[in-house]
Design brief:
Helices cover about 40% and strands about 20% of the residues. The chain is an alpha/beta fold and about 300 residues long. The protein starts with a strand and ends with a helix.
């Protein structure tokens, strides 16, 4: 297949691009580099620098593609609170432009990078694909809800033959180079390697489902030949306390650093983890990299940057 990956110069997109090419697919990476990094793009991919808000450029890039993996979005939660209009314009507006460009280019298959944040504060755990979608805790999460709706509507109108929505839980791993970095694991590792205090909210008691990025990338391969409209949660199916992540990092590096207690943080849910039964049953996908192994690989990556 020829596959266009929007946001392919980002953390997850860079891993997906490499995996797709390794599996024999032809990949076009389409990224404006406002948040991605050119050096993360696999040299075997065809790279096009462009914005998802540029319909003409997108339509041209899409010609001859069999499918789109849509990963282009702003993802920094605090920034979305400060600049909700920016997030709406880029994430929701960009998705509208992409869907219009796909129609013009005759591309009828999309795999969308969504988020578990669409579930809001869970009524019960583990979360399943049938758990209710709620008003999001922040503007970033709300844009993901709206992006999902746009894609589902496009499918219902018959303009898409395949619409796959993947709701990620908490990805981590090499190549996570966000600026600023707001995700826990890279910040914990960087602080530990620099022998500085680790910034920790809620004393680390919150529970999350941490999925290694290469496992997450593999979840995009499984539905490439699937028709229809489908939603899959993508996680390990296990919840881990954040403080346990900190202690595992200490065990890997062989020393401890102080923990900086940042208290409570608005918008956080106490616990969030998924059931992985649907994606395992329907796509024969499951996470393979253990938390310990994934953290070791991630620590080695950040060591290599020093």
């Amino acid at each position: 297949m020829k596959i266009l990956v929007t946001g392919g110069a980002g953390f997850i997109g860079s891993h997906l691009t490499r995996l797709l090419i390794d599996k024999g697919h032809s990949v076009v990476v389409y990224d404006d580099l406002s948040r991605g990094a050119r050096e993360l793009v696999d040299r075997r991919a065809n790279f096009i620098q462009g914005s998802v808000l540029d319909k003409e450029s997108l339509t041209s890039a899409l010609r001859g593609s069999d499918a789109v993996v849509h990963m282009a979005a702003f993802i920094i939660v605090p920034e979305s609170v400060e600049k909700p209009d920016l997030y709406w314009h880029n994430n929701v507006g960009g998705t509208k432009v992409l869907l219009a460009a796909m129609e013009k280019a005759g591309v009828k298959k999309i795999i969308f990078s969504s988020s578990a944040c669409v579930y809001g504060k869970p009524d019960s755990l583990p979360l399943t694909e049938d758990s209710p979608v709620k008003k999001a805790e922040n503007p970033y999460g709300q844009t993901k809800i709206e992006m999902e709706k746009l894609i589902q509507t496009e499918f219902e109108k018959g303009r898409l033959e395949s619409a796959i929505i993947l709701r990620y839980f908490n990805p981590y791993g090499p190549n996570e180079l966000h600026k600023p970095e707001t995700h826990a694991i890279p910040n914990f590792i960087k602080a530990t390697l620099a022998k500085k205090p680790i910034p920790l909210y809620w004393k680390g008691e919150q529970i999350r489902d941490f999925i290694y990025v290469e496992d997450l990338a593999a979840a995009h391969i499984a539905p490439l030949n699937l028709g229809g409209c489908h939603i899959f949660n993508v996680g390990t199916g296990e919840g881990t306390k954040v403080i346990d992540i900190v202690n595992k990092i200490f065990a890997i590096v062989g020393y401890k650093v102080p923990v900086e207690d940042l208290g409570k943080r608005a918008g956080d849910v106490p616990a969030n983890y998924t059931s992985a039964e649907k994606i395992k049953k329907e796509l024969s996908w499951e996470a393979e990299v253990s938390l310990e192994e994934g953290l070791k690989r991630t620590v080695e990556f950040f060591k290599s940057l020093a």
